[in-house]
Amino acid sequence: MMKIVRLLILGGLLFAALVLAQRVLPDRYRNDFTDWLGRLTAPNFDWPPDAMARSAQAPLISEYQRRGYRLKCYGSLRTEYKIGKNDDYLCWSLIKSAYDNIPARMVTFFFAKEELTFVRLEFPESSFDRLQDYLRRRLADKPRIDQIPGQRIGTDVFGKPLMVWLAPDGLVTTSAESTPEQPITLLWSRSP
Predict the structure, then answer these.
(1) 171 partner at 20 to 30 Å CA-CA among 63, 83, 84, 137?
(2) In the prediction, which pLDDT does 161 show?
C-alpha cells in the first residue's frame, strides 16, 4: 500500500513540475520541452529516401495519421515556409527516430497542387555519423550527382558541401559535414 502511495505522490510531483515548467519557461525552452515530451511517444519514420515517390496529398496525410503521426497541417504558406515556389500546403510531425532507429526530430511533407513535392527530415547533430552510415549503405547503388565532374551543387546554409543522390523518383540531399549545435537535414525532392 505504501508503494502505491509513494508512486502516486511521485506522479503528482512530476505532473506539477511539468505544469510549472510550461508556465515559467521562456517560449523557446517551453517549445523545446514540449517537443521533447512529444518525441517520447512519437513514431519511427521508415519511408526510405530512395523509395519516396509522387503521392497525392489526401491519401498520404490519411495514411500517416492512421500510423499514429500527430500531423499539424497548414495551407496558404508564407514564402519562408516554402521549399519550392509552388508549395501551397505542408504537414509536419514530431518523430522519435528514422530508418535504423537513428534519433530524429521531425518530418515535414510539402505539397503543391495536392501532390507531394518535398519530404524534409530533421535530425539532431549527434545523429550525423549514423545517418551518413545509413545513407552510404542504402544509397550505395544510386548515382551521386555531387561527384560528377563539372557539377556545381553548392553548400548548405552553413557553408558545408552537399551530397546529392539520384533516386528513382527524385533527388536525396544532405550535408556532407555536420555543423556544431545545428540540426542535420535530409531532403527528398520530387523529380519535375
Answers:
(1) 63
(2) 93
